[in-house]
Each structure stands twice: as C-alpha cells, then as structure tokens.
Amino acid sequence: MAETLGTSGAAEWEEDLRDTVETSDDLFSQYEQTDDLEFLREAIALAESAVTSITPFHPNQAILSAKLRKMWRSKFEHTEDEVDLDMAWVWAIEEIGATPKNMTTYATACSSILTIRCQLESTRSRYRFPGVDLFRRYERLGNVADLNEAIIEMEKALEACHPGTPDRAGILNIWSVMLVKRFERLGDINDLEKAARISEEIVRKSIAGGQIHIDALCNLGTMLLERFERIGNFEDLQKAIKHTEAALAATPRDHPDHAGRYSNLAVMFSARFERIGDLDDLQKAIKHSEAALAATPRDHPDRAGRY
Fold first, then answer.
1. Is 101 exposed, middle or buried (0-12, 13-18, 19+ CB in 10 A)?
2. Is the C-alpha dihedral spanning 203, 174, 289, 282 positive or negative?
3. Which end of the chain has less Cβ packing within 10 Å, N or C?
4. Does residue 307 contact residue 274 with C-beta atoms inside 8 Å?
5. Alpha-carbon span 153 to 148, nearest angstrom
C-alpha cells in the first residue's frame, strides 16, 4: 500500500501536491500490473515534480524520496541501465538523510541503501564516475545543490586518485563538464577557467586519437568559445577553432557527435566573421552548417535548428 501524505491543515498547494503524488502512485501501480514502462516514466516524472515543490525539510521529504528510490530501482530492474540505478542511489541517500532514526521506516531505508550499494559495486558505476548520479539528478531537476555536491564528490575522488590511474582522464573530463554546467547556471568565470585548465591537461596527457582525447579537444573548444563570448579575447576564438577542427578531423563520420562538431565550427567561424569581417569565414560557416545539417538524421530534435 502506498504511503500517504499528511492532511492536517493542508494548504491549497499541499492538496495539489497530494493529488500529484496519488496520481504518481496510481501510475506506478499500473506499471507493476502491466510492466508498461511508460506508466513508470510518468510516475517518476510526477513524483519528481512533487519533490521539487517542497523544501528539503518538509515532513514528506522522506516519503517522496522513498517513492522515487523504489521507482528508479524498478526501472533499473526493467532496463538494466546503470543510469537508473544511480538515480535510485541518489534518492536512497536522500531518503535516509530525511528519515528520523527513531522511525520504523529507518531500518527499511538502511536495508534499501545497502542493497543498492551492492548493485552499484557490482556494476562499478560509482567507482568509475563519482558524483555522476547527483549530476544526472541536477540535469533532470535543476537543483544547484546537486551540482555542487557532484563537483565536491569529483574533487574528493581526484584527491584520492593516483596521477597514473587509468581512469583519471575520464574523471577529469566529467569534472570539467560539471564545472561548465555550473558556469552556465551561475556565471562564475572561475568555473569556466578551471574547466578549461582541466581540459588542457587532458589534451596534453591523453593518447592522441583516443576517445577521451577527442572529447577533451571538443570540450576545450566549446569552453574557449564561451570564454571568448564572455570576455572577448580573440585568441580564445582562434584556439577554439583549432581544437574543434582537430576534434572533428578525428571523429568518425558515423559518430553521433559528428554533426554537432560541424555545427560548433559553424558557430565559431560565424563569430570570427563578425569580429574581423573576413568573407572566407562566413563561407566556412555556411559550409559547416550545411555539413551539420546533412549529417543530422531527419528525426533528430536538432535538425530544425540546423536549418
């Protein structure tokens, strides 16, 4: 039986909250009866909507976190996608933090988190990607606290990581992406500067032609473009073009990022044309835009924008 939210003195928004959660519970029940993943997706979306509408200290935080932990774990059992298990872990952490130790549900929360942790260790997802579960939740719900915690987890992992560890470059790459996301959200140029330095280190130390090296080149190009747009240093734009051209040249034609890298270069050449007025840059921008469009599948959500 689904746990219900308290009703005493409920304000109108609390009634809306209760309706949302009850609908989510109904959808989850339908999923359990039919195994139709669409019901589960809708149930999760509604539960996430509910939890983002309350404060972290709301008395129903633990209940909602438990619901989401259960739903995401059910989704993992259906899909075997580690992303779903990571999300279950995040909500299990939230649940245990919000549940008073003298509550009978605390033991259930402890048992659940231990089970999920064992599953995570067997998939090794948290070993490879510290903080990525919180980062994924940030991307879903937009809570900056999740992004900050993800960055802290990543920094701690790097402190404990030997410079020669094979996973170090991958961890650095994810860390730089997180910092860029925080820059885009909060506008602190220091985050962008740090992310650029990290990507430069990856480019220097990773194996040329390897996927991490190529991704770092592309990420660095994007960061330098953002810094150019922010502070106007033309040298940043020049380097952005150089790194992105190198990334594109090393990207296989059938790679899903191939079209996006053409598109990025088009933006960069267009920016350089606007800065110095060289018609050749405008022609290159058009050429790369056409290439990006040609490489974009007809049903891709970015196709209209590339037109």
1. exposed
2. negative
3. N
4. no
5. 9
Looking at domain 15-126, does it have CATH number 1.25.40? yes
* Residues 55-96 pLDDT 10s: 777 878 888 989 999 999 899 889 888 888 888 888 888 888
Q: What are the start-end ranges of the H helices in the chain?
A: 12-34, 37-52, 61-79, 82-98, 105-123, 125-128, 132-141, 144-159, 168-186, 189-205, 211-231, 234-249, 258-276, 279-294, 303-306
Q: Do the domains at 15-126 and 128-245 have one common CATH topology?
A: yes
Q: 162-200: string of b/e by CB count within 10 Å (b at 16+)?
A: eeeeeebbbbbbbbbbbbbbbbeeeeeeebbebbbebbb
CA distances from 47 to 22, 52, 116, 153, 277 (A): 9, 9, 20, 26, 52
pTM over 0.70: no
Cβ proximity of 217 and 247 under 8 Å: yes
pLDDT band at 275 (very low <50, low <70, confident <90, very high): very high
Residue 125 has pLDDT above 80, yes or no: no
CA distances from 216 to 32, 49, 171, 238 (A): 42, 34, 12, 17
Residue linked to tokens 């999760």 = 44
Q: How many other β-carbons are positioned within 10 Å of the β-carbon of residue 140? A: 15
Distance CA 209, CA 251 (A): 9
219-231 pLDDT per residue, tens:
999 999 999 999 9
Quick check: 217 and 260 in contact, CB under 8 A?
Answer: no
Topology of 128-245 in CATH?
1.25.40
Cα separation, 39 vs 24, in Å, equals 9
> At 200, which amino acid appears?
E
The 10s digit of each residue's pLDDT in 21-38 is: 999 999 999 999 999 999
Sketch the domain layout of the chain as residue ranges. Answer: 15-126, 128-245, 251-306
DSSP per-residue string spanning 261-307: HHHHHHHHHHHHHHHH--HHHHHHHHHHHHHHHHTS-TT-TTHHHH-
